[in-house]
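Quick one, tokens below:
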């Protein structure tokens, strides 16, 4: 017997071990964790359960209780990165670990083996890794431990059905938690026996669970308009369950877990823990262990093949079906065979919960993340069963003789099994390399922001598939749609159907940027337009890694130039400068000159050209090289016949540039030297005596270098004009004035950030009021979409969007009832443009999309 003080010390040591083990991963969060954090933050900020503030309601998470917990943290100023770590450590050390010890003790074993269960859980690799990752695994394990512990305890001593409360929390933590709750309710019924008040207690258990559960789901169904989270629909297509395919994803996931962690070799110990090794059950446990070993080891098992397992063995065709059928029968027979054994309440419940975890792993066909995430659901019951198995082995050996030596031998063998089970888990944790985290994907968010600055765009539509960082940090750069469908119902429902993809993201929501790897690549590349309308631009991290980033081609290249043509010129070898526009010619030294230009040339795959602008005030010449096609984005050697580079570029004005008026010389350099100008527009001059290079075109009085104070005053005047034009409902002029302000004062991004909110509010308000007063439906749609692009959460945008959405929704419902499918679809689509929070419009639109496009998923 373990002394009481030693028991407490050992249990404290297990709790401390759980804390230390998780602390080794204190820096790591799995990328998906930030998805839940983003929804929690939006909820706490008052925007509801939405992807981005002012955006669509999407149940893009599958852990609502975890989201609500984090939202409470955000309300008091604790972010999700902190609250998740605290909760997982506290729940693991103070709830899961001690309750596993108590559950094991209630099965009738000595205290030492009960404490061993606590240590097994504390150092279980999947329990540690996935509790530390920022997701809900730690909460799930704690609620499962509480629910099982209370179920057993209430069967013994009665009391309020707190087990039902725990399993209610479990069902609200993970969708599959309802299955655990159903089996827990069944065992509560079984464990109650035949007491006189059993029916009253069972009714109370059911009421405590089902009343709040039903109320919650009624509310969430009305809120989201879909029966299941987007994550369910998104993963449904992936989870093609083939139970008889031993080489398929489902069994492969279980097999790899068994081999890599070594847990599979402890199956006999689990059987011993579930059945006990006393009496006839001991014989059954040993017989089943031998049969299962034969099933799994013949004709070979992966870890042993590399160390000389006989390779000439072959199995008959019926062997695999026999293996799977036998494993299934054993799994379901064990709890029935354990009924009536010592501690059977704990043994049967733990085996059942372990079985449910394995069934979920098989049905879900595993998970994409390294580290066997779903096997964390197995941690609590497996810890109890392994400890019970060790105790049974020790007791069986002890029973072989009556001397202390046999007892010591039994304890030693049981301890070796226990130590081996813990050691294999520690070894796996040491080898484990954490999955991608949100902070690494944030680099891609920053890369998108950099690309928008290069393109001089305010916001963008983006297609990606790593949604944690995108949701948490990407809201300021626009709307990010999830090609995987985790936070996007249309993608979740229709997946990569080409007709759907072309309509949804190429026509209705044309995107500027995409990360076309993995899920996104499989989606967009199925549409033919992708190959002609998008081009790859450099990756981040030096440009040679994290590639697969694409930009819509027409942001760089078009078939015409729509700017002024007075500053135009033609050059030798087919080079044409269609025009130059300098939006803000007044700039200061050590700043940037913003230039828009149109340029075309004949195809020249191996003959690059360079374009130079030269500022000249008669005494000082300042050459500025223009990045054609942004150089490594779409270089001139890739340009096709008829394509016009529509550049929006910034050129550095050096400190040595002195105040004054400057002319602009344009020089084109080919592989063999200057390509001379052959003609110029009305504002251009072909000088007989060139100022910089023979063959240049000269445009007098183009740029005015001024002092910083003068330029800042001009920029401030542009800002005031933008706000004024916005208030006057001249939205296009307001946008142009803001472009002028940015062009004037590109030297300071901080200044732009400080004045942008006022302009943003004015322009968004302008477009919203324009939508409200638009004489036609199409004009209202365009205006409200422009308003939302400027500011999704401006009060006027929300008010007008809500009013327009309500009217268009009513019209769409009527069209739907009358069978006018196209009109109904267009009405629901436009409703969502105006007011994305109308979840039922989304549902009806997607139902009609299936009919219209004849989508077969």
């Amino acid at each position: 017997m373990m002394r009481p003080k030693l028991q407490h010390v050992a249990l404290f040591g297990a709790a401390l071990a759980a804390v230390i083990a998780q602390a080794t991963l204190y820096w790591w969060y799995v990328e998906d964790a930030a998805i839940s954090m983003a929804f929690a933050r939006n909820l706490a900020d008052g925007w509801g359960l939405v992807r981005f503030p002012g955006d669509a309601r999407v149940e893009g998470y599958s852990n609502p209780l975890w989201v609500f917990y984090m939202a409470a943290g955000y309300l008091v100023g604790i972010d999700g990165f902190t609250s998740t770590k605290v909760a997982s450590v506290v729940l693991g050390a103070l709830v899961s670990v001690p309750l596993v010890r108590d559950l094991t003790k209630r099965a009738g074993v000595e205290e030492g083996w009960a404490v061993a269960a606590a240590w097994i859980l504390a150092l279980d690799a999947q329990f540690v890794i996935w509790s530390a990752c920022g997701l809900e695994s730690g909460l799930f394990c704690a609620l499962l431990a509480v629910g099982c512990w209370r179920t057993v305890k209430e069967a013994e001593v009665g009391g309020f059905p707190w087990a039902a409360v725990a399993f209610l929390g479990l069902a609200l933590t993970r969708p599959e938690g309802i299955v655990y709750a159903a089996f827990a309710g069944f065992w509560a019924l079984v464990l109650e026996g035949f007491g006189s008040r059993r029916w009253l207690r069972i009714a109370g258990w059911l009421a405590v669970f089902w009343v709040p559960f039903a109320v919650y789901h009624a509310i969430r169904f009305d809120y989201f308009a879909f029966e299941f989270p987007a994550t369910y629909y998104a993963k449904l297509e992936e989870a093609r369950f083939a139970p008889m395919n031993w080489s398929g994803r489902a069994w492969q996931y279980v097999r790899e877990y068994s081999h890599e962690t070594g847990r599979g070799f402890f199956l006999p110990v689990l059987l011993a823990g579930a059945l006990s090794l006393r009496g006839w059950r001991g014989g059954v446990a040993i017989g089943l262990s031998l049969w299962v070993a034969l099933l799994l080891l013949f004709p070979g098992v992966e870890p042993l093949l590399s160390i000389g397992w006989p390779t000439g063995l072959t199995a008959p065709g019926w062997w695999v079906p026999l293996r799977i059928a036998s494993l299934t029968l054993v799994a379901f027979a064990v709890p029935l065979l354990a009924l009536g054994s010592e501690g059977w309440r704990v043994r049967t419940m733990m085996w059942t919960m372990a079985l449910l975890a394995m069934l979920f792993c098989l049905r879900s066909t595993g998970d994409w993340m390294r580290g066997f995430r779903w096997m964390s659901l197995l941690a609590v019951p497996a810890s109890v069963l392994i400890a019970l198995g060790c105790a049974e082995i020790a007791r069986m050996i002890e029973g072989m003789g009556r001397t202390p030596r046999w007892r010591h031998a039994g304890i030693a063998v049981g301890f070796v099994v226990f130590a081996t089970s813990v050691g294999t888990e520690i070894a796996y944790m040491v080898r484990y390399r954490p999955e991608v985290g949100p902070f690494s994907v944030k680099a891609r968010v920053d890369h998108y922001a950099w690309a928008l600055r290069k393109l001089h765009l305010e916001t963008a539509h983006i297609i990606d598939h790593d949604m944690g960082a995108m949701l948490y940090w990407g809201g300021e750069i626009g709307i990010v749609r999830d090609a995987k469908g985790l936070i996007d119902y249309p993608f979740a429902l229709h997946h990569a159907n080409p007709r759907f993809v072309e309509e949804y993201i190429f026509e209705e929501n044309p995107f500027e940027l995409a990360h076309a790897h993995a899920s996104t690549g499989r989606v967009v590349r199925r549409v033919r337009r992708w190959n002609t309308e998008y081009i790859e631009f450099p990756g981040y991290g030096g440009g040679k890694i994290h590639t697969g980033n694409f930009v819509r081609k027409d942001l760089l290249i078009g078939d015409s130039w729509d700017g002024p043509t007075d500053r135009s010129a033609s050059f030798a070898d087919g080079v044409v400068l269609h025009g130059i526009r300098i939006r803000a010619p007044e700039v200061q030294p050590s700043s940037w000159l913003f230039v828009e230009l149109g340029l075309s040339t004949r195809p020249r795959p191996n003959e690059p050209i360079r374009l130079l602008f030269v500022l000249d005030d008669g005494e000082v010449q300042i050459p500025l090289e223009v990045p054609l096609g942004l150089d490594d984005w779409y270089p001139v050697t890739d340009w096709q016949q008829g394509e016009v580079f529509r550049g929006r570029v910034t050129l550095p004005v050096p400190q040595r540039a002195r105040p004054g008026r400057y002319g602009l010389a344009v020089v084109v350099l080919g592989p063999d030297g200057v390509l001379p100008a052959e003609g110029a527009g009305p504002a251009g001059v072909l000088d007989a005596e060139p100022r910089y290079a023979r063959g240049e075109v000269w445009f007098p009085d183009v740029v005015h270098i001024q002092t910083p104070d003068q330029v800042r005053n001009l920029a401030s005047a542009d800002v005031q004009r933008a706000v004024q034009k916005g208030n006057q409902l001249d939205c296009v002029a307001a946008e142009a004035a803001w472009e002028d302000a940015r062009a004037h004062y590109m030297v300071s991004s901080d200044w732009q950030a400080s004045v942008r909110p006022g302009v943003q509010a004015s322009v968004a308000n302008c477009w919203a009021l324009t939508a409200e007063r638009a004489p036609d439906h199409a004009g209202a749609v365009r205006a409200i979409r422009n308003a939302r692009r400027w500011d999704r959460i401006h009060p006027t945008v929300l008010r007008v969007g809500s009013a327009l959405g309500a009217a268009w929704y009513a019209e769409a419902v009527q069209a739907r009832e009358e069978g006018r499918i196209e009109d109904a679809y267009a009405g629901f689509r436009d409703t969502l443009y105006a007011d994305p929070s109308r979840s039922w419009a989304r549902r009806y639109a997607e139902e009609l999309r299936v009919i219209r496009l004849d989508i077969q998923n």
